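FW: tagging you since you asked about this chain on Friday. Here's the raw sequence from the shared folder, copied in full. Didn't touch anything.
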Amino acid sequence: MLDRERWDLLQSLFHGATGLPPDEWRRYLEGEAGADQVLVARVLDMLEDDALDASFLDRQPSQLATDLLTTSDAALGRRIGPYRLTRLLGEGGMGAVYLGEREDVAAVAAIKILRDAWLSPARRDRFAVEQRTLAQLNHPGIARLLDAGVLDDGTPWIVMEYVDGAPLTEACRSRRLGVARRLTLFRAACQAVVHAHQHLVVHRDLKPSNIMVTTDGTVKLLDFGIAKQLATFGEAADRTQTGLRLMTPAYAAPEQVRGEAVGVYTDVYSLGVVLYELLSGSVPYDLSRSTPGEAERTILASEPERVSDVARAAGDALLVATRAQWQDLDVLCQKAMHKDPLRRYASVDALVRDVDHFLAAEPLDARPDSMRYRLAKFVSRNRRAVSVAAVVSLAVIGLNVFYTIRLARARDLAVAEAARTGRIQQFVTRLFEGGDQAAGPAESLRVVTLVDRGALEAHSLTSEPALQAELFQTLGGIYQQLGQLDRADSLLRSARGLRAAVLGDSAAETGESLVALALLRSDQARYAEAESLATAGLAVTRRALSPDHPQVAEATEALGRILSEMSRYDAAIPVLTEAVRLRSAGGEETAEYASSAYELANANFYAGHYDVSDSLNRRVLEIHRAIFGARHPSVADDLINLGAGQYERANYADAERYYREALDITVAHFGRDHFKTASNLTMVGRSLVFQGRLDEAVGALNQALAIRERVYGPLHPAVASTVNELGTVALQRERYTDAERSFRRMIAIYRSAYQDRHYLIGIAQSNLASVFMARGENAAAESLYRQAIAMYDRTLPAGHTNVGIARVKLGRALLRQGRFAEAERESRAGYDLLTPQVNPTVSWLTSARADLATAYDSLGRPNDAARIRAEIAALEQQAAQTRGR
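HL: got it, structure written out here
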């Protein structure tokens, strides 16, 4: 352990060496420390840690940087951007802060310049963190960032709002403020910290000198130089001496001293110390003459004196409070400064609530909720009325005290839940209030108006972050359903941040937010991020909840759905099968069970398992009709799925019937300008195209495209789906330029969304090849068909109908090049694959038969040609008989 003298020498050597290049450190230290190699080695370790293995940059510092290294006063009169440095406001190990004057607009500002930027990347990084942090904070209680830049040598500087005032404790003393006024200023500082926490920033160095009070009584929070983003909390803090250089030990929380992860609870502790000093005139621990080791032991192991005892011993006549008030103030400080973060106030908001309770003479949340305590508070607020009714009250209390004690806990839980329910009911009621509350809500009030109003209301609930997060989560989901994905994104990200900050990364609510964000990313076609979020959300949910909890099944379903969207059907099907199993555990076929079965049906459909998909879809349709009735949007989704099964079997009229029945429900529920309506219209248009009803198809498809581009933007797979159908129409009308443009756009969208690996890219390539073949460019068509088949082989199961269709088309391209043997092989392979799966009259099979007959003739195989033609004749006769009926 270092004694006081040796510690002073160590610090002196360290600060003396920081101004030198690294290659001169050892010579300097050995010259100053003599033969004490242990001390030399220790200082070298500190220097290397501070520089993070930095090396001297191959350039000389600017004149201003040189002036800063010698004397800070030498920089006065120089210019930083439009500002002229006029006065040194302060300096420390990180740099110097000057008052800067801007003559053109007669303004002043505080200009912070990093010292030794060319020697220490570690300092540069911390300086950059402060700049980024200030840029994202906009609160009247936080000094604003005005400008930033670098000198010619790369030395960074930032311009901040100049706060002309005094540190919080000094301001309270000089203005001779009493307890209530001090708490009011302290509360204002807390509100600024709350704003930082809402932006996921922890200050980590809260102390009176960083909380300034201006001449008009405004509180301003300063110095975010070692602030930390919540997103980086998995990292440990710097250890021991290095860590103590990055904080003020007297205000540092135990977890900071131990080098552990920090959080909002760390700022709660520091605010508790500030409050302690405001009320007592001194900090809880006097570390002014302690070595780092001694300071660490004191902070971690010692308990401070009660703030009331220290205040009474100081005898400050300004700090007047009753005995009961001092007891409350003791509780406030002890709760905020508890060594265990889990025993502190859960947030700065919670600390503020108890300050408000104190100022209003109400019971503290942190106080044991005893009958005696609540009665004392009631008496202090209603002393005259209570004295009149004292005898009666004592009799009633005597009769009820036994039951009160037994029921206290249950009552409090019920009251808390009732209060929460009441707040939510009040929240919802306000959504429906028009401009004139007496007149009630306007009849024209739309859902979007309500949700917009709800978002504004939810943003006002800053004092209740858990409730606010819950409402953000709900409203974000509603915006997502309404197709307003940007608004959904903002709210769902806010919900996740609040829940992580208040409840922790391992809370079930945080897992729920991760899953919700994952599903939104899927809707935004950001699939890699969606999978990562869903996987993390499922892991958190499984750890936080029992295996049979509904939220586990919900998270499992979400991951399976996203895997299916990524065309990873082999991975999606077992995940979704597990979701179905979890939701059928109770033996009831609920709406939640139907949801998982619906997603499993989709995965099987895209994997080419049409019979399995149809069976699941019919069962889901029965459940939805039984639960919701025949006109529910979920019923429409089921009908669309059944229509898709008919479409893949080339039963286009049956597909159209399902699609139109679904469209009728969708329009009635969502209106004609909703993204679900656009999806349904695309399906109708697709079925019309293959029935040759092109004019009808184009009307439906153009309407769908306009909606999808508005909702999703121009580069979303949903847009490509509609563009594909319009390209098919253009191809059938022999408008080859328009068709090529559509299919190339389709390829570009799918490649952007799926990182060049998805069966839909193969479909787009195959469709573009059809344009080339229609133009007679058969070699170009052949190349694209082969690319499509290769994509299918990587992304679809063997035997999929898309593979069969592409091989039939490839056979025709080869046939037209006179490569008959190759053409016969591809056409036959495609024909054999499609025959057991689709209607025998489908166009692809008809084309394959005609091509095979031609190939057999050209190869001198008349018997095979005759057999194929007999098959064609039989099918034509069967079709004629069907039409005759």
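FW: The two ends are 104 Å apart (CA to CA).
HL: agreed, and The chain has a mean pLDDT of 78.
FW: great, closing this out.
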